[in-house]
Amino acid sequence: MPGVWEAGARVLKPKGPFWTDAELLALGKNSDVKYELWDGKIIPMSPAGPKHGAIIARLSYHLGTHIYENRLGEMFDGQTGFRLGIQHCFQPDISFVCHERLKLILPHGIEGMFHAAPDLAVEVLSPSDSITKTEKKMQLYLAHGTRLGWMIDIKNKTVRVYRPGQLFEHLQSEKALTGNSVLPGFRISLAKIFENI
């Protein structure tokens, strides 16, 4: 049945034909489990290890410094939901929305979610993530407004860069991530991201 996830005797399903923002937000209350909505179904997300958290914290520091010093917009952590239609709701590990788009996709009321994808979506692969599934997620982000996506592969110390209408670019250790027109002036070497990891 669409919209159902079973864990023992617990069944999660929407009250109506699809999950509302309020229902999705309520899943996180009184629970340590993080959920995403995939093809109308609730999927629990496994906890990640320390390397995953370290990469996110390190990149968040450098991105946040650049974003806020240059007043480019707002950065969000991995708890922030982006609703991509009624079938999908994802929480990128790091996301950025420029000031201009914030006004257009801001949630209605305090308890709403963004109803579009962020300008920048960053997904850091954990051991339970597959490249194929994460790539599908990147394509959904791009289809709903993302202008730049980074899939960070800790195991291989590489990054796939996604842009609308283009094949992904595969960056290895000697390369650098740049913000292009999404984050003008931002640049960080992959060596700095993966240092001591």
Could you name the CATH homologous superfamily of the largest domain?
tt1808, chain A
Q: Percent range for helical residues?
A: 25-40%
Uncertain segments are 1-9
CATH top level of the largest domain is: Alpha Beta
Q: Keywords, please?
A:
alpha+beta, 197 residues, 28% strand, 2 domains, tt1808, chain A, 5 helices, two-stranded antiparallel ribbon, 6-stranded mixed β-sheet
Describe this structure in words.
With 197 residues, the protein is α+β, with helices and mostly antiparallel strands. It has 2 domains: 40 residues, no CATH class; 147 residues, tt1808, chain A (Alpha-Beta Complex). Helix content is 26%, strand content 28%. The chain has a 6-stranded mixed β-sheet with strand order 5-8-9-10-11-12, sandwiched between helices. Strands 1-2 form a two-stranded antiparallel sheet. It has a two-stranded antiparallel sheet with strand order 3-4. The protein is globular. It starts with a strand and ends with a helix. The N terminus is likely disordered.
Summarize the structure.
By secondary structure, the protein is of the alpha+beta class. It contains five helices and 14 strands.
Per-chain topology:
Layout: E1 5-7, E2 10-12, H1 21-27, E3 34-38, E4 41-45, H2 50-69, E5 73-76, E6 82-84, E7 88-90, E8 94-98, H3 99-105, E9 120-124, H4 131-143, E10 148-153, E11 158-162, E12 169-171, E13 176-178, E14 187-189, H5 190-193
Parallel strand pairs: 9-10
Antiparallel strand pairs: 1-2, 3-4, 5-8, 6-7, 8-9, 10-11, 11-12, 13-14
